[in-house]
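Tutorial handout. Part one gives the primary structure; part two gives the three-dimensional structure as tokens.
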Amino acid sequence: MKDTPINYDVVKRQIAASNIPNVGKATIREVKRLINEIEKETGQKFVRMEMGVPGLPATQIGIDAEIQALKNGCAAIYPEIDGMPELKREMARFVKLFLDTEVTPENCIPTVGSMQGGYAAFMTVNRMYKEKDTTLMLDPCFPVHKQQHAVIGTKFEAFDVYDYRGDKLKDKIESYLKKGNIASIMYSNPNNPSWICFTDKELKIIGDLANKYNVLVLEDLAYFGMDFRKDYSKPGVPPFQPTVAKFTDNYILFVSGSKVFSYAGQRIGMMVISPKVFNTHAPDLKRYYASDLFGRAMVYGTIYSLSAGTAHSVQYAMTAMLKAANDGIFNFVDPVMEYGEKAKIMKKMFTDNGFNIVYDKDENDPLADGFYFTFSYPGFTGEQLLEELMYYGISAISLTITGGRAEGMRACVSLVQRSQFPDLEYRLKKFNEHHPL
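Part two.
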């Protein structure tokens, strides 16, 4: 078994030197560091699918606007904590034009990436009502959201939605809400890591339960418009990006500048709080904040404490990108369709060589091709497969750290170049040859 595409002894030695107790349970950054060391020693390039980061150039509209803002002196001035007025206006327009949902500029807050938005929400929402101190995660989920809960010291519960799609989702979620301790329901749509997309029926189930039990829905729309089965790129024209906001007023939405605008390095996202939630008085907030008004506690309590706002220059970039999209002069979905096209090719390479796609349907519809896909190989757990694939120059992460199915792994297509497809195909064939079914 030592006739592997990457030197067997080097990989084995580097795994031992990493001091990671169980490579299969390693964090994304630990996997990245380990692969870096193997690449450095062998001089061979991995097909890298562990990092969920953009692989396309940043939107030029944003770059130009940010450069001009810096030249105009914005770096010397603190931004408003809740965001520049012109940015907030474009955020509200974006929500109306692409989500068909009415909010005011006051309800729209720039954050240091949607990750900071999530962190701020977990801190604030779980303090609204003293008896509700727990987040319900609809797994599989972005692992850092659970890490954030651990750092904050707040509670979460979770279940894998794989076996609870469609009508089954209602009873499963309600079994948690009946306990009375759930403050919010958290999920991403499209989902990181599985790329499942909740249907309108499922979103209505979640919204109706949020209304019934007075819990908030934290909807992560980091991959906005990237379910390429439908065209969500036209402002003010159906179809609109699916959202729970159509079925409840108890929501906070997060939109990332990193993925759809490929503007990851500057760390900006949008947090959109429903008007109802923003103006909710929750006396228990006074345990931690000067105000019991949710919106004021969020902005002048949590956001202020975390970063005193989002970097000034990138707010100009986001304003310009949103305005161009809102005005219909910039189709922000077109450039990122490359991810879906690559995923289609790569998934076929995997399935042609004995691998299976783990999360493969939205109710009865085949899953979209997009930023992520999940795979497994008979006879292996995801943790075992992660380590074994290192000898073949293929990196990904185990679904175990996402709350997903134990046999699976998550692959991100963004950093894989088309020029690497022959290498990927060769390595998958070699793996299949060494592990006959």
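Part three, for discussion. The CA atoms of residues 183 and 370 lie 31 Å apart. Residues 8-56+334-434 form a domain with the Aspartate Aminotransferase, domain 1 fold (CATH 3.90.1150.100).
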